[in-house]
From TrEMBL:
<dbReference type="GO" id="GO:0005737">
    <property type="term" value="C:cytoplasm"/>
</dbReference>
<dbReference type="InterPro" id="IPR005627">
    <property type="entry name" value="CutC-like"/>
</dbReference>
<dbReference type="InterPro" id="IPR036822">
    <property type="entry name" value="CutC-like_dom_sf"/>
</dbReference>
<comment type="similarity">
    <text>Belongs to the CutC family.</text>
</comment>
<dbReference type="GO" id="GO:0005507">
    <property type="term" value="F:copper ion binding"/>
</dbReference>
<keyword id="KW-0963">Cytoplasm</keyword>
<dbReference type="Pfam" id="PF03932">
    <property type="entry name" value="CutC"/>
</dbReference>
<protein>
    <recommendedName>
        <fullName>PF03932 family protein CutC</fullName>
    </recommendedName>
</protein>
Amino acid sequence: MPEPRRTAVEIAVQDVAGVRVALAEGADRVELCVALGLGGLTPSAGLVRAAVEEAREDGRTGFVHVLVRPRGGGFVYDSDELDTIVADIRFAREAGADGVVVGALDEAGRVDREAVARFVGEAGGLEVTFHRAFDTLPDSLGAGDALAQLGVARVLTSGGAQRSADGIEGLRALAQRVDGRLQVMAGGGVRVQDIHALIAAGVDAVHLSARESVSGAPSGPGGGDAAYDITDPISVREAVAAVRDVRP
């Protein structure tokens, strides 16, 4: 009899060093992005290729999932932006990524079904995650049904709260509603001490950035803040351990 599948751990990383940390500490996959301070944006071509190579060298499959979000400031996109998203999905697929993380809303604030169908079609065999645009939707349960029908693999959500630990009931209701047709991944301020409660709510995965800020060299008046983020190996290790500590 096969062992029950445990909850997955996904780490949001912004550089190759973060990919290496996630690999070394036993995470199940990464969401590769930049500009986490803006909620995450599409990473560069060089970063995508380097992340894929790191995972391949480590013998890991299903590991690199690329965020495709062309800008901050909401999730309603014009035709040029949608074309850019589709082109970036194509690049991620051709570069060897294992999945893409996307999202789009229509002018009424609902899931843009036509756009998501384009994204899924361009992704081909890659797993598609719908990102936290989901947490802006007025009818999350109905949206879960729609995303499952469109062929999306999972949704990243805090259960509609600022932090996923405060959205437990929303996460539970969504997991019960989709009943395996769509994976529910808890994300949004996830702390290691929250993980057991999130798993008890029925989520399929937990998502955290495990980042800390360090000081860099002075960047000058045009270079922005001298501090930058790194992926903390201890936080990743503790998150993986917390998941493994839960007995199915």
